[in-house]
Amino acid sequence: MNSVKVISKKSFLPGLLFLIFILLATLPLYGSLYNVVLFTAILMYIVITVSWTIFSGPTGYISLAPSAFFGVGIYTMAILGKELPLLLVVVIGALVSFILALLVGALTLRLRGIYFAIFTFGLVVLIKELLLFWEVTITRTRGRFVVLESNNIIYYVMLAILVILMFTAYFIRRSKFGLALQSIGQSEEAAAHVGVNVTWVKIITFAISALFMGAAGAIMATRWTYIDPYVAFNPLFSFLPVLMAIFGGMGQLYGPVIGAAIFAYLEEKLLTRFPYYYMLVFGIILVVVILYLPEGLVGVVQKLRRRISGGERAHT
User: Fold this and answer.
1) Residue 113, by phi and psi: left (phi above 0), alpha (psi -120 to 50) or beta?
2) Most CB atoms within 10 A, among 177, 209, 243, 315?
């Protein structure tokens, strides 16, 4: 009987994931234009949040640099979008963000705690101000117009980025590389003592997370007619993924996905109905989660599972 239950659980999750993928892949066929645009935004936030969790979740390093890598992808599309094919520019945006993260990681990942968080957010401000200075002083213009793409193309490219990201995150968690990341989060000194190249592992993981953020920024740029440094390097793209990951919980891979999906949907609804108060609502939700749900929604699900399994054992 127990073996039947184990087999059913193992087959249920892949089946559920496949069903969700089919529903998402066929959304433009049965959904309205509003739903396609809404789900594109939701997928974008899931990509940024899961990318952030790949590095910050197991290591405990709070990175506030997502806006920098996302914005680099946006500007890559703004500069090269008229000259090169769409998918090639998305790949270039991902690679530019990857290389930038390698350089930044090599310089900063020896910092810890609040120092690392402050530096990564300073990176966002630095890139934004340098670009603004370049445009205003050198090119005598501010911002760029972007070649627009159809909403369906943007949606499918974002969905493809998410699928690749989820496979990457899954294999990282299941590999020796993931074990090394977890050991770093528990104790860097102990990890280094047992032979983990702590600095190299952190830098590579930081760069991998940035790669997907850059790709998401590149494709999302084609949704906006005009972008400038303030649009591309919006600090909200650094803080919201952190809130979404905390809300969903980082104990399991599906936690950041659920947190990002719920928060992105709430943002859309609150922005349209309460444009001046939605950040206040987000703040209240975050405080409540930290106080009463420190492990996020994942922790709630795990507690329910333990209670259900405990009840079943008591009956047997």
Assistant:
1) left
2) 209
Q: What are phi and psi of 45, to 5 degrees?
A: -65, -35
Q: Report helix, strand or coil for 109.
A: coil
Residues constituting the chain = 316
The pair of three-digit structure tokens given for residue 223, joined into one six-digit string: 């949704």
C-alpha–C-alpha distance, residues 164 and 26, integer Å: 18
Domain that holds residue 195: 31-315
Cα–Cα–Cα angle for 77, 82, 85, rounded to 5 degrees:
75
How many domains does one find in the chain? 1
Residues 142/132, Cβ–Cβ less than 8 Å? yes
Query: Model-level pTM?
Result: 0.89
Beta bridge partners of 144: 227
Inside any domain, residue 5: no
Is residue 41 in some structural domain? Answer: yes
> Residue 163 and residue 60: Cα distance in Å, rounded?
25
pLDDT of residue 143: 81
**For residue 6, pLDDT beyond 60:** no
Q: pLDDT by residue (tens digit) across 123-178?
A: 999 999 999 998 888 888 888 888 888 899 999 999 999 999 999 999 998 888 88
pLDDT of 195 strictly over 50? yes
- String of b and e for 204-236 (b: at least 16 CB within 10 Å)? bbbbbbbbbbbbbbbbbbbbeeebbbeebbbee
